[in-house]
Every structure is written in structure tokens, then in C-alpha cells.
């Protein structure tokens, strides 16, 4: 792509219905997104059925080479993609935000291409030889969220393509332009019909989940919508990978150094202005260092600039949509009304344009308070006191979700012992939310099932076949 304008023009519809996309930081128009229909979905599925067999026949090496070329294409258009992402989603260009997200897209494409997937010899005893292979599923449906629209789309489509599948993507209605632009760039290096974005409403998503030609659905989003995907997919017994809601707990052990961990705690909680499934959303701190952690964390948080994403100085942005703003505001107001102590923030400027909610820290809050018990998905962190590690573990495990968790300590052995007791798909030590394309990632309890990333992620996009003889 030659420029931002050219990139935007390449995805702007010239016919059919469209929807105006608004910048959540400024209220200005970003562009027009197509409103695709179920008929458009059917055409995308038909094209994918035509393209997929030849793609599967190319083999892993050729498909991996195509993914590497796609990564090159993303890097060539990286700044244009980041500008669009910042304007549509709201996240700043700098910090772990828009440029970071686009860079992660290229990195995940490269890592997916480089991950080996060997035939596994299960038995070879001289009489029986059994080998485990993974064959393409065929067509994969990918339904993505609005918080990390480009990166999570890559998490879905890169392993699907590597394993020989065609992909039909249904992006969030809040951030369709980012996904359409990313696909347009990647499609410079892919056969026609293999990867299609259908930018429609809930009817398109529902049809994708139930479509008899779709062999697998990958979904990232809320637990409630994930349950609807499960129901829609049941009649055709689709394979599913579901990365659903989380309310991640962090436990600060008594031997931790408050000053040393403060910045890690901040970014664990407030990356993407708190709009991350695996962000730190409940922080449990031992009585002995509770005030020190509150003080150090507040000092870090107060120094982080929030504002319009295109301003190079900012590292925190607005909430992507007003509905999410209202959820955060309601939860913080309820916490304040209950007697909790607002350390920082909690006072949005209603006269300011955009969906900006200030960085908010809430102390002396009961563990049953809605700000603790419900996923806020925004820049408000409750900090809960505990007296014993057993108490902290019990509170952390009390909810019906378990995407991630973290333990913060100067004693790695003690931290690992506590980590083993937590009911979460990933438990980080002295960090939170750090994902790696080589390391499997998935949820426990109602945070979903199935693994992404690495060899396990590739296997999840294939059909296991045992050849015995």
C-alpha cells in the first residue's frame, strides 16, 4: 500500500450498504465499513471451498513461505495499519498499543510459519506401527473482538492457513476497518478466495457458527456470546476454540518489593487501557505491604499520559465504545458508594470529547463488590487486602472464569507453589498477560477451551488422523 489514504480507499465500499465508523477518541469519522449480508457470507464460503483444496495440497513448506511473505507485506504497510487501528480502536500509536499490535501481527505470522509439526510415531514395536498425522479441517470461521482486532485475527487465521485451511473472518462491528485492511494487505500474498472478511452483523456471525461447510469456529469474546456459538455449532458438531471472558487475579505475596513490581502491575492491568481479556483485573495484596503497593502503583499510574492516540506522547487511550465506558463508570460509582477508597481517577470529564475514562485505582474494597466480581474491561483496578495466602488463593479461585492469573514475589519457588494452586489457563510470575507465539494459551472454567499458539495451536487447526499398519 502506498499511503494511509490508499489503504482506506482499498476497503471503502463503492456499492451496497455501509456504516460510518467513528473515532472513539475524537468523535470524528474514520471511514465507511461495508455491511455485508448472509448472502455475502455464502459467496465467501463458496469461494473458500474452491480455493482450499489446492492450498492444502501445497504442503507445509510452501504455505509457510506464503505466511512469511504475508508478514513482509504487513511490515511494508505497518505505519498505515497502525494509524487506522489507532483511529478506529482508540489505542495510542506508542506504548504496547497500535504499532505494537501491528508488529505482533508480523511476528505471529513468522512464528506460525516457523513452528515445526512433525509426524508422531505413537507405536513402533516391530508388529505395529502407528503414526499420528494432522490433516486440514477445510474451512475455518474466525469471529474476533474489538479490543485487539488485528492481533487476535492473526492468532486465528495464521495457524488456520498454515494447516491448509481456508478462512472466513467475521470482525467486530466496532472495528471492521482494521480487520478489512489487515486482510487486504495479507491477501497480496495469498490465492484468491482463501481468506475473506465478511463485515456483517449478528446474523452473519450466527450463520457462520452454524454453517454446514465450516468445520471449525475460532471465537474470542464474551462468555455469553461463546455459549451462543456453542449452541449454534452443535448440530454440525464443529470443532471449537473459545477464548472467552476473564477476570484475572493477581496475588502479591508478603515478600514482594512494592517499588520493583509497580510498573509490571500497572501494565498487567492497564495495557490497552484495561481492554484486554487476560489483563489483571483483581489485585490481592497482603496486609503487610498493602499501603506500600497502593502508593507505588498510584505513582506509576499517575505518570502515564492518556489522550488521543495519534498524539505520540500518549500511552493510554479511550474506551472503544460508549457501552463499555458506561459499564466501567457504573462499577466504579458502585464501589465508591459502598465506601471503597478511590486512590486515583474515578472522575471522568463529561465535557471532554471521546470515551475517556481516567486511570482508576480503588482500595479498601470488599471482595464481593461488583467491581471485583464482574469483569470491568477498562481502566479501573480494585485492590483487595488479604491476611493469609490461603485466603488469597480462595478469593482468586472463587469465580467461574479462569483465563489468566499472576503471582508477585521475590521468592520464585514460593511463587510457583502458589501458582500451582490457581485455577487459570496461564499463571504468570512477576508479570501478567505476556503472551508468546511459542507458548500455548487458553482458558479454564468458563473462560473457554482449546489452545492457541505453538505446536498445540497448530494441532487445534487440524484433524488428527492415525495411520496404523
UniProtKB/TrEMBL annotation:
- What's a Pfam family this protein contains? Aldedh
**Which GO MF terms does the UniProt record name?**
phenylacetaldehyde dehydrogenase (NAD+) activity
Q: Which EC number applies?
A: 1.2.1.39
Q: Which UniProt keywords apply?
A: Oxidoreductase
Residues of the Aldehyde dehydrogenase domain: 17-460
Which top-rank group of organisms is this from? Bacteria
Give the matching InterPro entries: Ald_DH/histidinol_DH, Ald_DH_C, Ald_DH_CS_CYS, Ald_DH_CS_GLU, Ald_DH_N, Aldehyde_DH_dom, LUC3-like
Catalytic residues, chain numbering: 243
Q: Keyword Transmembrane: yes or no?
A: no
- Family affiliation: Belongs to the aldehyde dehydrogenase family.
Q: What is this protein called?
A: Phenylacetaldehyde dehydrogenase
This chain's source organism reads Arthrobacter bambusae
